[in-house]
Design goal:
Elements lengths: L2 H7 L17 E4 L2 E4 L5 E2 L2 E2 L10 H23 L5 E12 L7 H16 L1 H4 L2 E7 L8 E9 L1
Parallel strand pairs: 5-6
Antiparallel strand pairs: 1-2, 2-7, 3-4, 5-7
């Protein structure tokens, strides 16, 4: 089964690729790796905004992290031509817009990590990861996530 068939089987859909918000590339290929810039949580209703500990809860932020993962995959598909070229998820860095008191950033970024696991499988889809809290993110996003992928 192709990666895109697996995404459909899971009842998911890749969003449209958005234009960069500045002077950067959404995906850079170097050798056998694809590096993604930070991607925001693009839901069907637009970007998910908020701050954990203030005006958004952990479950909504988890869903937002999943949307950010789908946005990354959309950019990768655009650059690679096919998501089947991804050999493994190497590393994910998730940043969570949160108050200093909020300490469950890893549970939020699981929205993206579990998405990749469900799509690519345990061995290929689970890589190294960092999840950190930050004081703010572009456009008020609740999460921003970047990744490194080994490719064919």
């Amino acid at each position: 089964m192709s990666v895109e068939e697996k995404i459909k089987e899971l009842g998911l859909e890749l969003p449209a690729v958005t234009a960069p918000l500045g002077a950067y590339r959404p995906v850079v290929i170097s050798g056998s790796h694809a590096y993604t810039s930070g991607h925001g949580p693009l839901s069907p209703d637009g970007f998910v905004k908020g701050r954990l500990g203030d005006d958004i809860d952990k479950d909504a932020a988890y869903a937002a992290a999943k949307y950010a993962g789908l946005a990354m995959l959309a950019s990768l598909k655009h650059e690679l031509g096919s998501l089947d070229r991804i050999k493994r998820v190497v590393k994910v860095l998730g940043m969570v817009n949160s108050t200093p008191e909020f300490t469950e950033q890893p549970a939020v970024i699981n929205g993206c990590s579990e998405l990749f696991r469900d799509i690519f499988g345990e061995e290929t889809g689970v890589g190294a990861r960092s999840a950190v809290g930050v004081a703010s993110l572009p456009a008020g996003w609740v999460v921003e996530i970047e990744g490194i992928f080994e490719i064919e």
